[in-house]
Structures are given as structure tokens and as C-alpha cells.
Amino acid sequence: MPEHAAGVAYRLSIVVSVVAQQLLIIADTHVPKRARDLPAEVWRAAEAADVVLHAGDWVDAALLDNLQMRSRRLVGVYGNNDGPELRRRLPEVATATIAGVRVAVVHETGPAIGRELRCALRFPDADVLVFGHSHIPWDTTAPTGLRLLNPGSPTDRRRQPYCTYLTAAAVDGRLDQSRCTGFRAAAYRCGSVRRRAVGPPAECTVSSRFSIRCATTSSR
Length: 220
Prior knowledge:
By secondary structure, the protein is an alpha/beta fold. The protein has helices at residues 40-48, 61-70, 84-89, 115-122; strands at 21-26, 51-54, 74-76, 93-98, 101-106, 128-130, 138-141, 147-150, 163-171, 174-190, 193-206, 212-216.
């Protein structure tokens, strides 16, 4: 008599191949006010990513159009410098579940002091919060486990040593392989507007809430 007919329970083991979702995280692009376009390195990262997250301050809707065309999936919000068209097309807060990671995106989170606790209360159902506005790379974790990420700006570094963006991988409910990449920017003038020419990319580590360390790498 077959074992199953004798009432023997069988345990079926199913092996699921988990595929990581590659993320590009950007904010505060300010095109065309701070740069004519995104750096070529950022466009390559956008085309290679499974999901692009943009935390606002696009400035021109043309960039939104281009990024929608060139990315596989785009999750974005508007920022304080975005006008009526961008506010019509984008939400103030966006949420998405990516490979089991619950992500929220917003432009502004208020002052740095108390940010973790404040955001943990505001976004209790998120695993990761992506934000912008300050142009300062940020990577901290709230007591609740909420991870806060600000990619800085790939076009307008302000007082930071580099223009920056983030990449990461979402896999099986967690965020892995997070990396900050920076650009050495040499200022030059284009008409009456001060522009920046983007140099070789750099590997950057967020060493504290307010600063980054970068080591130049060869161009890809």
C-alpha cells in the first residue's frame, strides 16, 4: 500500500528563487536650473534599475517625462520647488512594496533633530523612508526599525563635497547593497547661470548624519 494511502503526511518543500530588485534613489535634481540634465552616470543607473525612486524637486516636468520613458518603474513625489503640473501628476507622499520592502517617499521631513522619531510616527507601516530637500546624504534607522535615506542631489551639492545619488537592492523584505556614489563637480558658467561639469564617480560612505566620505573611482 502506498505510504500516502496509509495516512502518512508528506511535507512538500518548495524552493523559491528570490530575485533582487535593483533600486536607484535620487532627489533634488533641479533640472534645468542647477544642471542641463542628469549626469550620464545617473541615466545609466536609471536604465539599469528595476525601480527608480525620486524624492522631489524635479523643477521641470520634462525630466519626469524622460525618466518615465527611460526607467522600468518610477515612484516619485513632488517637492517644494515643483510647480502646478508636477503637483498634478505626482503625489506628496508615495508608497510602494518592492520585493517585500515597504517603501515610502516624501520630499520634506522637517528639521534633522528628532527626525527619526518624527518619521517613525508619521510612517508606521514603512520599512524604508526616502526623502530629500536638504541635499545632504543621510542614512539612519529609527528605534522602530524604520530606515531613513536621503540620496543628496546628483546636480546641486550645495555645501557637500560631492553631488550624490544612492543605489540599493531590495530582496526578500530587506534592503541590501546600499551605496552612495558621488561626483566631483567643477563649476563653470553657462550664460548667466553657474553650472557644474560632472567628473568621475566616487564611492561614498555616509559616515554620519551630516557628512560623507568619497574615494574617486574610474569612470564606467
